[in-house]
Specification:
single chain; nine-stranded mixed β-sheet
């Protein structure tokens, strides 16, 4: 299959951290390049609130900026938000699928997965090509998400679900578990609140998370951005003017503008760009 590598346990490139768990996958199908370095898994419910999606993206962005690898499942909700934050920061990420490497699930996240690969990350699966995304496969893949990371962060989760399975597996594997507290009356906070009650470290935002992770992973080592600088010809320039000033590649310009807006260096109002 074009662009896909199969890594068996006997291969030198097989991730050594997977050998530490009780049931390591016998082989991995890998699209892209498995990043080397400390990794953090950011997971949560597929039925995330707007607040949870925003926080998941913010945390993915902060972890990537710190120079750490963002691991998640490419699922709807918190997983996808964390991966988008990773892309915002020019970071490296790993998405672990619960289906074959040639079956993008959910299908609307194919572009996101390909962005991770293009940015120097990887999409991986232990399942052979063509394997459908049956519900029972996802709890099994969660052990790979937690094993690839030194720490697992749960942003939003119900009392039952994949995120709590990942957190339990992480604890069994000796990984540190962090969780975001929330409204005790909200279903999507019940799981994270229970994790904190049972010993997970509470984190109150991206800055708090980075400070806590630094005790586990060591000080952040930001990776310099490889993105070219964006030329904004003047205050209040239109999007069309900025695209023209930067070579006409609208997709690349809009991606950079989105990153700059997320960082707070510009604001976009009614199709015009202003310096923040």
């Amino acid at each position: 299959m074009t662009g896909v590598e199969v890594i068996a346990r006997k291969d030198p490139s097989y991730p050594s951290v997977l050998e530490e768990i009780a049931d390591p996958p016998e082989r991995l199908w890998v699209r892209g390049t498995l990043p080397v370095g400390p990794a953090v898994a950011i997971v949560g419910t597929r039925r995330a609130t707007r607040y949870g999606l925003s926080l998941g993206r913010e945390m993915g962005r902060a972890v990537a900026r710190a120079g750490w690898v963002v691991v998640s499942g490419l699922a709807r909700g918190i997983d996808g938000a964390a991966h988008r934050g990773c892309i915002d920061a020019d970071g490296r990420g790993i998405a672990v699928l619960g289906c074959g490497i040639d079956v993008w699930y959910p299908p609307e996240h194919e572009a996101l997965g390909r962005q991770l690969v293009a940015a120097g990350g990887a999409v991986v699966s232990e399942y052979p090509p063509g394997t459908r995304p049956e519900p029972w496969r996802f709890p099994a893949r969660n052990r790979i998400i937690s094993a690839l990371a030194a720490a697992v962060v749960v942003v939003e989760a119900a009392a039952k679900g994949g995120a709590l399975i990942t957190a339990r597996l992480a604890a069994e594997q000796g990984r540190d578990v962090f969780a975001v507290p929330g409204d005790v009356h909200r279903d999507t906070s019940r799981g994270t609140n229970l994790l904190i009650r049972d010993g997970a470290v509470p984190v109150l935002g991206a800055d708090d998370l980075i400070e806590a992770l630094s005790l586990v992973l060591g000080p952040p080592r930001p990776v310099p951005s490889t993105s070219p600088p964006l030329e904004v010809p003047h205050e209040g320039a239109t999007l069309e003017e900025i695209v023209e000033a930067n070579g006409g590649d609208a997709a690349a310009v809009l991606q950079l503008l989105g990153r700059m807006e997320a960082e707070g260096s510009v604001r976009i109002e009614a199709g015009q760009v202003f310096f923040a």
